[in-house]
Amino acid sequence: MLGLLLIYFIGKYFYQLAEDNNRNKWLYAILGVVVYYIGMIVLTVVFGVIMSFTIYPYFFDMNDVLLTLIAIPFGLLSVWIFYSILRKAWKNKPVIKENDNLIDDF
Fold this sequence. Notes:
single chain; 73% helix
C-alpha cells in the first residue's frame, strides 16, 4: 500500500512540474516513477555490495520487508535529484507556446 501511495505522489508531482512548464505531462509522470524504481534497484544493489564486503556480511539473509524499507529512501533520493535537475533546467529555458490566435500585421 505504501508503494502505491509513493507511486501516486511521485507521478503527481512530476505531472504538475511538467504542466507548469508546458511539457508533456504524462511522459514526465511515468518517467518519474521509472526513475524511482531504477534508483531503488541500482542504489540498493550498490548498498548491498558495500554492506556485504564491509560491515554486515549477512545482508542477503535479511527479511524482504526490511530490504524494501531500506530501498525506499534510495528511490526517493533518486527522484528528488531528478526532480531538482528538471526544475532547474526548465526554469532556465522555458518553453514558449505558439499562440494560434495572433494575427501578424504587415
